[in-house]
Specification:
Layout lengths: L8 E6 L7 H16 L3 E6 L1 H4 L6 H18 L6 E5 L5 H10 L4 H5 L2 H8 L6 H15 L5 E3 L5 H18 L7 E3 L29 H9 L18 H6 L5 H13 L4 H27 L2 H30 L5
Parallel strand pairs: 1-2, 2-3, 4-5
Helix pairs in contact: 3-12, 3-13, 4-7, 4-13, 7-8, 9-12
Bound molecules: adenosine-5'-diphosphate and tryptophan.
Amino acid sequence: MTDPAKRLTILSGIQPSGNLHLGNYFGAVQQFIQFIGEGHECYYFLANYHALTTVRDKGRLIELTRGTAADYIALGLDPARAAIYVQSDIPEVCELQWLLTTVTPMGLLERCHAYKDKLQKGIPADHGLFAYPVLMAADILIVRADRVPVGQDQKQHVEVARDIVGYFNGAYGDVLTMPEPYIPENVAVVPGRDGQKMSKSYNNTIELFAPDKVVKKQISSIVTDLAKVEDPKDPDTSTLYAIMKLFCTEEEKLYWADRFRAGGLGYGDAKAAVYDLYMRKFADMRARRRELDEQPEYVDEVLRQGAEKARKVALPLVRDVRAAMGIPNR
Ligand code: ADP
Ligand code: TRP
């Protein structure tokens, strides 16, 4: 257990907007588990208010929210040691978001990539997408998080939260806690099957909980060059090797890098090895996930208790913010 004096508050969330994939695991969930193991105070939630910016099918959102909660538990987020909850069960985040918007400059949000990319593509953006980083700041600040484990693509949003703390505390005194992103170098960006960043929205994922056959197909469609079996292959430029090494010990990384370089390793065989490594890592979690499908009441109870725990810190925080701003707490 971590020395209580060094116990940090950790918070992160994932949008229930599609099926979880290797990028989510190595870029985020693996670090969620690490912080739980180190004995910190952990809050991990499903960002269903954020998901509304992309999912407009009510049934699908309900299903994805419950499914992603089961995914979290199956992947090893222990409900006894971390609060696991749904964002909308802490509706005060929306109130805090409004309070924070009043100190957030437009320019700060205009620079954010999710909104900027959409505008650049000529797609009209709605206000939800524009305000998205302020809601994310509210998620973080409402539990007084010290660290926010995320992948590289979310770094900018955590920086926005930090800027907002600066503006708010500058205006109203030292009320909010300054969070820091936590992004380990080696997993900051997990490549997808096509070599771009793996993302639900690029159709290039390798999923964590798809049926075996689908996973096999996804792995076999990782892009490779036209090298023949006997040709030496450069692991440093290979997407297949970049994905493979996520699963490997240091020793195994060297072993496979040598086999790539030596020639004689066909891509088909290398992909079969990736499938085996994937199953070595995820087979138990996938079995647990199937069990959880039969236990919806258990998942609901975890979410209820998680929300209760998060609200215990969220409500007083919002009261403090209101008081600091001159909004009465009756
Ligand atoms: P997606 O891009 O698939 O929609 P999300 O935005 O829901 O993924 O991401 C949830 C978490 O997983 C975030 O912390 C994000 O940074 C992380 N993440 C997603 N894709 C990757 C990736 N390819 N590499 C590293 N981290 C990732
Ligand atoms: N925006 C994050 C994503 O798309 C999800 C998220 C919402 C989040 N609120 C957060 C992540 C607070 C960390 C902290 O991945």
